[in-house]
Amino acid sequence: MNNGSRKRPPPPSQPLPANQPKSQAFSQEDEFVDEDVFLDETLISEDEESLILRDIEQRQALVSRIAKWIRPHLSSEYLSQSCSIFFQQLEIDYVIGESHKELLPNSSGAAAIIRIFGVTKEGHSVCCNVHGFEPYFYISCPPGMRPDDISGFHKILEGRMKESNRNSKVPQFVRRIEMVQRKSIMHYQQHNSQPFLKIVVALPTMVASCRGILDRGIQIDGLGMKSFMTYESNVLFALRFMIDCNIVGGNWIEVPAGKYKKTAKNLSYCQLEFDCLYSELISHAPEGDFSKMAPFRILSFDIECAGRKGHFPEPTHDPVIQIANLVTLQGEGQPFVRNVMTLKSCSPIVGTEVMSFDTEREVLLAWRDFIREVDPDIIIGYNICKFDLPYLIERADALKIAEFPILGRIRSSRVRVKDTTFSSRQLGTRESKEVTIEGRVQFDLLQAMQRDHKLSSYSLNSVSAHFLSEQKEDVHHSIISDLQNGNADTRRRLAVYCLKDAYLPQRLLDKLMFIYNYVEMARVTGVPISFLLSRGQSIKVLSQLLRKAKQKNLVIPNVKQAGSDQGTYEGATVLEARAGFYEKPIATLDFASLYPSIMMAYNLCYCSLVTPEDVRKLNLPPESVNKTPSGETFVKSNLQKGILPEILEELLAARRRAKADLKEAKDPLEKAVLDGRQLALKISANSVYGFTGATVGQLPCIEISSSVTSYGRQMIEHTKNLVEDKFTTLNGYENNAEVIYGDTDSVMVQFGVSSVEEAMKLGREAAEYISGTFTKPIKLEFEKIYYPFLLISKKRYAGLFWTKPDTFDKMDTKGIETVRRDNCLLVKNLVNDCLHKILIDRDIPGAVQHVKNAISDLLMNRMDLSLLVITKGLTKTGDDYEVKAAHVELAERMRKRDAATAPNVGDRVPYVIIKGAKGAKAYEKSEDPIYVLENNIPIDPQYYLENQISKPILRIFEPILKNASRELLHGSHTRSISISTPSNSGIMKFAKKQLTCIGCKALLSNGDHTLCSHCKGREAELYCKTVAQVSNLETLFGKLWTQCQECQGSLHQDVLCTSRDCPIFYRRKKAQKDMAEAKLQLDRWNF
Amino acid sequence: MLELRLVQGSLLKKVLEAIKELVNDANFDCSASGFSLQAMDSSHVALVALLLRSEGFEHYRCDRNLSMGMNLNNMSKMLKCAGNDDIITIKADDGSDTVTFMFESPTQDKISDFEMKLMDIDSEHLGIPEAEYHAIVRMPSAEFARICKDLSSIGDTVVISVTKEGVKFSTRGDIGAANIVCRQNTTVDKPEEATVVEMNEPVSLTFALRYMNSFTKATPLSNTVTISLSNELPVVVEYKIAEMGYVRFYLAPKIEEDEEETKPEV
């Protein structure tokens, strides 16, 4: 595998730290290369296979237990091969094998065989081996080379390839070189096409090595040393195949009867396995019947390991004790298989098949057999890619169960585990394992969540709470061993927990419609489903670009990664915000899909860009070019229609169609598909602009992206001027319109009218009037009214959102702390409640009071600790941070306390700020919330007041209230405080609590131990008060305890959960503490 | 009804300066016997105990035991407005949520009333039981303040060791180490300049200098300071207030394991 030439040297300005080698080399999300896997190398020898089979016979009982879940039997038509096979493909990969003698009688030797895995509508699994497709790429034909010279060039190239691939057994590296007529996508060219050389090589990885040779330069007779720009040499082989055969991710493929041959010897576990030629495949566009989904089998699973105290489970030491499985047919509400495999006995669980085994070996092998028989198409779970799957495989390795990792669809082919380093600016560096399971798509919900949703915590618990309003108990992994070592009932408890962990990912998958959305996204952009999780945005745009370019006879250059030295360009414009609280309706005028529209309207594309040199040379008529505000020149569509505009037009047209169909659709499943599609189309359209602007992307073109933003800026200004010129009292309108704010693609106008209806009318009029002044399809739309509207500053506002005159739709906020992740929940709730009171209830005094109450609660230590927890992602270890940060220091301290529970790089760290010595920095005062609860450590209310609450609250109230700061932060409500006594501090070991009067807190003299003499008269009243307090706290604690028991699904067992993400947990702990203290006080009476 | 008249008003000002660096908010407890305060510093490492006995006031009236929560910063702001020779009277009515400080100039030609809002502070009342100490050192307070200041420029912690010969303060830091020995010395002209060591057993304890330095803010209150030490007990640094009472600071010794935790970062 010679991909060394592809890795760029790291940028010199950033020397690599010694502890993270090659992270830079993978910093690009699309730095993926083909990897040739030789069929015969991965297969297990016959002897071994028979050993496995004998093993199976021994465990006949188990096999028959599992066998009831096998796929439906093949009908006679399939068996006799008399019908065409229609299937929905999910996964496409390739292997290197001997080329097929019957299908390809003319070739011999090693060749790439494409394997398509999929499912028919009856639910049969399919493995289609496609032959005859060869890897290739283009170079521009050097001027002066004639068709006769090609064979000479071929020989030289072949020779160079042999040199650099000495240990390869392939007889011929470069299969053939053809001269073809193509055109480069870059820049406007007047000629129609020019000669290119299409170089066809034997194996996919040779594309990269051949490109390396051509990049470096090659000696050609008569032409001298020449280096070549290569075209389309960075396209993965499977994608190349899909593009050339018009296959898009997750679509239906037809193989006509008679065109396929059943394989002589089945290599896979699929029911239908056959060979065919790539030219015989019929790919169906996802329309009508072909937009449906086949009944995939989705397996959701979770494992439990018995860790040792103080250590995170390691596969070399800690056994796998349970595996819970749920198998669901795509489109059905309930799983049809629900089982749990346990080590040692386990009490029965309703609705679940419990399979208990005596040894860990049996558990693992049972799971392998289960996978083979159930044959899932998609494997889902939470963090399976980084934890569960690698753990199982490494554990089997540690136990020397060589026959375990046969989980793929290829008979006796072991699962491959690869270490990968994924590094991106957003997520930081993460080391992980990549497990390849042939023919099965892995869909890790954790990855999908991290990709698609910004959350404060990505634990399964908090994600489920967020999306499903459902929690699960969080058993600390050190307790798991105790449960396992108990009896059948404690193991049952663990099994229930494990099942829930397997069930929640399935629920999330259904709820968020990941399958529909991802399949639709794959169909729209044309990439395989597995790319969507593992690759970035640009591969999707590249795939569309390649498809379109192919139709147009264009080829795409493999531009050398230029790094960031291309510089940046000016982004979008933001009009100055006139901050204030607006009690008149504000109309918002939006540009619909602004950036895509600009690209379409001005025909901005790689192929319509005229280089400055050509501008002078070609002498193009001014009426057929557009000069953009940023100074670039693009030809209009009559000279050369751009490809990007065409892609965008199709995407937007498809979106309109999908939206129209969505309105018509009745069937909820169909609706789900269509909604997923229109969303995918929208995201794809918007990512085209980003693709051209990504300086480290596949084909950056700053000329396009800077032109787009420059037009955008111009349009916002233009709109503002038009509105303020036209809607004036001079022109007969009631009031002068005023633009109060404008962002990237929207302008907010106060027309001065006081009813929503009138504002809507004027908004529509303005939108129509201004749209008329723009080039099509740029369109200004009137969408909504904000009324009332609180404009705080640039990108920060809140308001009630109206789309119809009678009622508002919702409250809408932007850039306000309701969404920021690194604030504590208190801020979020407080801001939300205040906005609700201000905007919806129109009750400003109420909002003020609410803030005061909250601050008072904070100072009185009545605040729930869960509301005060701040979380921050730990992206690197302490030494790498330049400044000390609270969460990093805490992680370090926690590691010293207990390495097992301490957060690791990549985790989000929850913490609270506690009181410290005067002048102590925030990073010295961060503490683990659970530790704080257990030791009754006082939090630092001043920190929360000054660093968390004050800014967001003042931002909201400043436009509304005079003296907001004095009123809210320093009023009389701040003069009641509570100072609690921690149980673990240095001086507390020596200090003794002295009794104070329960009534008035005065110090008690020796004789008394409840009340001072002064309060004696109120004894009865105070006693009742104390009793009432105790009983209140008891009730509260009882309720919280029951809540937790319900969450764990059992009302007669102790609660073990210690979930850091669960607000109930903190409240329960606090109620428990408060109750104990109140009881102590009650005991003082002691009549 | 509470009414406390203190002729030497500057005393109260000095007391506030002594404790406000350690404590933000605290309850002042008034009883027939005196005016007192016990509070932990905000990091819960040190404890402050103040006592002003009723005999020291010119006029002392306290009808019932009373606990008044005050923000010491605000209180200090008000007391700063009193002249050094002024007579200060503290007044509070039963059930009121304010306290009044009245300043009278010595010549009685100026009387100022300052009213401060009280706070409702819910905290536990802590005290350190009296104990026998292994070693008691009495030395000039200015000398002690100087030693703490000097040592803190070199290290974060001070080791105080008491032997027959005297008391040794030592520290160690990145730039080097320092040792200061004060010998027993009773042959001085003025008794307050004496250094007296009473020792039953030798002791050697480690403390954070950060806190020691805060304690020395009480130096203006007294010419001498008494340091009482015992193994496994917090150190007591006491400044006597002539004829009235004392300000005592308690600080737990540093133990190896929590050295990491409370170690002040530079």
Task: Describe the 3D structure.
The complex is a heterodimer of chains A (1087) and B (266). Chain A has 1087 residues and is of the alpha+beta class. Chain A is 37% helix and 19% strand. Chain A folds into five domains: 111 residues, OB fold (Dihydrolipoamide Acetyltransferase, E2P) (Beta Barrel); 231 residues, Ribonuclease H-like superfamily/Ribonuclease H (Nucleotidyltransferase, domain 5, 2-Layer Sandwich), CATH 3.30.420.10; 255 residues, B family DNA polymerase, palm domain (Palm domain of DNA polymerase); 160 residues, B family DNA polymerase, thumb domain (Topoisomerase I, Chain A, domain 4); 92 residues, no CATH class. In chain A, strands 11-12-3-2-1-10-13 form a seven-stranded mixed sheet. In chain A, strands 23, 24, 28, 29, 30, 31 and 32 form a seven-stranded antiparallel sheet that branches. In chain A, helix 11 packs across helix 13, helix 14 packs across helix 20 and helix 16 packs across helix 20. The radius of gyration of chain A is 34 Å and the shape is globular. Chain B contains five helices and 20 strands. The relative contact order of chain B is 0.18. The C terminus of chain B is likely disordered.
In short:
The complex is a heterodimer of chains A (1087) and B (266). By secondary structure, chain A is an alpha+beta fold.
Strands of the widest sheet of chain A, in order across it, are 11-12-3-2-1-10-13
| Greatest contact between two chains | A-B, 45 and 49 residues
How many domains of chain A?
5
Task: Tell how many strands the DSSP assignment of chain A holds.
Answer: 37
- What can be said about the biggest beta sheet of chain B? 9 strands, antiparallel
The oligomeric status of these chains comes to heterodimer
Given the structure, what is the number of helices of chain A?
Answer: 30
EC number (chain A): 2.7.7.7
Family (chain A): Belongs to the DNA polymerase type-B family.
Domain C4-type zinc-finger of DNA polymerase delta (chain A): 997-1068
GO molecular function (chain A): 3'-5'-DNA exonuclease activity; 4 iron, 4 sulfur cluster binding; DNA binding; DNA-directed DNA polymerase activity; nucleotide binding; zinc ion binding
